[in-house]
């Protein structure tokens, strides 16, 4: 670091202070942190960046967020010591003998807005007096994710701020708005990949809130900006998950579910009843039943997740368990590592089966 220019990113973004010898307590609180290259680039960019520390949902971990990405802070203990010295008139004195340091690692995120948002059905702008509601600042403080990831979650879960507080569109209301959008495109003979918001609102009129219409339009669009392009697979997936969620404890006939799913999806997307769209959301139960089993109810701790999965089923087809593992990793290499650590593979009738490496009681 001695060859770096004086005005480097660390001097600009971190307060440096000399610690007097008598202040031993403060010296003991010094923690060294290994900063990865992508965060260095973020801090040294043309636009001044900032880092935010937040608690995980369970309070057991600390995450570090840039404006667009979330990292886990992990304490690493090592056999060798890292020595931190401070300059003195006649040389240097030892300030810290560090046996550990903080490592910053990429992590998968899970954003839960359900408990922070009150349903908006298109009618009731107010909420009951005894209902806890949250402002944008409060939502961000309670969500262990970056601002960009939180903003994307607002769109995915169709949440918006009404009178300053977070609200979530009900399924029926969002479906109603979606039908208005599709009807407009059909009536005006506009391609579904060339939708303009202003023209859409002129057709719908003032009966619906502009922010609600734009939210639904962005939720089901392949593009983030105009012209918006409706994604039929996204619509089919959203409807399929909603219908499945009604069968948490009692399975439904597979054929009955597919027919109900097909009849609910609006034209021209009713043929998109592909079970692959619902990966990580269901269990197939022999001989011909399907049941809701969403990945987001499982723990984020890998050991606990595998324990839950093998309590549900002692044996899994590899293709069936993968959707429940990918949410724990940031890339496929880490998925393979998790499978090697927690499972054993077997081949049965030319299919790859995984069983628990350990037996949990």
TrEMBL record:
Which GO BP annotation is one of this protein's? maintenance of mitotic sister chromatid cohesion
Could you name the domain of life of the organism this protein comes from?
Eukaryota
User: Is Endoplasmic reticulum one of the keywords UniProt gives this record?
Assistant: no
Of the GO CC terms on this record, one is: Ctf18 RFC-like complex
Pfam families named in the record: Dcc1
User: Chaperone among the record's keywords?
Assistant: no
Q: Keywords assigned by UniProt? A: DNA replication
- Similarity comment text for this entry: Belongs to the DCC1 family.
Q: What is this protein called?
A: Sister chromatid cohesion protein DCC1
């Amino acid at each position: 670091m001695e060859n770096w220019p004086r005005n480097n990113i660390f001097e600009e973004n971190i307060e440096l202070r000399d610690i007097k010898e008598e202040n031993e307590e403060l010296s003991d609180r010094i923690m060294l942190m290994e900063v990865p290259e992508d965060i260095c680039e973020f801090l040294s960019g043309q636009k001044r960046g900032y880092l935010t520390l937040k608690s995980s949902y369970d309070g057991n971990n600390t995450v570090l967020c840039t404006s667009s990405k979330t990292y886990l802070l992990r304490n690493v203990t090592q056999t060798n010591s890292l020595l931190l010295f401070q300059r003195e008139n006649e040389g240097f004195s030892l300030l810290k003998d560090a046996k550990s340091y903080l490592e910053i690692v990429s992590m998968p995120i899970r954003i839960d807005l359900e408990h922070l948002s009150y349903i908006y059905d298109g009618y009731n702008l107010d909420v009951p007096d005894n209902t806890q509601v949250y402002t944008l600042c409060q939502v961000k403080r309670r969500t262990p994710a970056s601002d960009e990831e939180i903003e994307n979650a607002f769109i995915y879960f169709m949440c918006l701020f009404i009178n300053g507080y977070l609200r979530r569109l009900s399924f029926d209301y969002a479906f109603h708005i979606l039908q208005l959008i599709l009807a407009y495109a059909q009536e005006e003979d506009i391609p579904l990949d060339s939708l303009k918001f202003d023209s859409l609102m002129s057709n719908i009129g003032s009966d619906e809130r502009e922010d609600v219409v734009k939210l639904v339009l962005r939720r089901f669009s392949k593009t983030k900006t105009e012209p918006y392009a409706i994604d039929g697979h996204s619509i089919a997936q959203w409807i399929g998950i909603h219908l499945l969620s009604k069968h948490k404890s009692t399975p439904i006939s597979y054929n009955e579910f597919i027919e109900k799913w097909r009849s609910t999806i609006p034209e021209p997307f009713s043929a998109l009843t592909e079970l692959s769209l619902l990966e990580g959301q269901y269990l197939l139960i022999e001989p011909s039943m399907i049941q809701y089993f969403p990945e987001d109810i499982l723990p984020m701790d890998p050991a606990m997740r595998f324990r839950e999965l093998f309590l549900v089923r002692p044996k899994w087809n590899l293709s069936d368990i993968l959707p429940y593992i990918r949410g724990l990793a940031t890339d496929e290499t880490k998925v393979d590592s998790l499978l090697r650590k927690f499972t054993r593979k077997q081949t049965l009738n030319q299919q790859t089966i995984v069983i628990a490496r350990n037996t949990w009681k």
